[in-house]
Design a protein that fits this description.
This protein has 363 residues and is α/β, with parallel strands linked by helices. The protein has 13 helices and 5 strands. It has a 5-stranded mixed β-sheet.
Length: 363
Amino acid sequence: MATRGPRPTEIVLSDAERVELEGWARRRTTAAGLALRSRIVLAAAEGGSNSELAQRLGVSRGTVRRWRDRFVELRCDGLLDEPRPGRPRTIDDAKIKDLITATLETMPRNATHWSTRSMAEHLDLSQSTVSRVWRAFGLAPHKQDSWKLSKDPLFTEKVRDVVGLYLNPPDRALVLCVDEKTQIQALDRTQPVFPMLPGTPARASHDYVRNGTSSLYAALDIASGKVIGALHSRHRATEFIAFLRKIDTEVPDDLDVHLVLDNASTHKTPAVKRWLLAHPRFTVHFTPTSSSWMNLVERWFAELTTKKLQRSAHRSVRQLNRDIRDWIETWNDNPRPYVWVKTADQILDSIASYCTRIKDSGH
């Protein structure tokens, strides 16, 4: 017969305590540790063993027991961080709250975002204090990421289709992520590049000479990481069909071919559709519109750009094409496949959560 552990400490909250704990748990300016402790106590007040709460909240049973007992002994004050040794604080909690609130909810009159200097002047604080608090709370007003939600009416279906290929590819088939990197410029610097020296980075002139462009077609095998590539001077359906013929030649005849493509117009012309009908072993899977992040070959293009193209100088398109071909050949000598880890449900849940945040933001 299994033995039971000690009975967990019972917690009964007053209305004021519940309001304060819920505020700490929800407010974005609350420190992560205090927010977690508040959620532990709120969950404990609803009942359940320490093991159940630990599993639900993703923490250890000892953590649940410690903060449960601490709350019973000292109530809400017991959840706050104890003073640490060192220089006494020169800014109180109210000032920090005002600083965080102003950073998140206001904007300076003469700029699009706060700087440490403008915020320090606005709240009569030192610049170092503003910088220190921002670092502690992970705030960086000068940075901005980009994002875009797809409006594809078949977004869910396409996500499940493409992710299903990545996580469970079909037998006796090759899954290729295909796309074009168009208008790659052959750029040459107007002056010599100074090599790196101790204490001095490599230096290149900011201006350049354009010597023409090239377009790279690439197909990334998700299983092996190898790449089939072709370079063309133009970017039309004609060139895309020529690349499909190359894929057809290089892939063994006994394998089906599944192509992951974006919604570019050159991928959907009548000529392309006729070619695909004439080659039934090819199956096309389109990513949702505005969702290039789902095509793994885009990750390979990023490596090509940062490791080769970004800092190279080319005096002609021929030289550019030769460098790209050499880079692909070197890559294929030791290919590294990209591993997709998120399921379709995880992606859709993440996007749904993001949409909820946008809706609730008031904008």
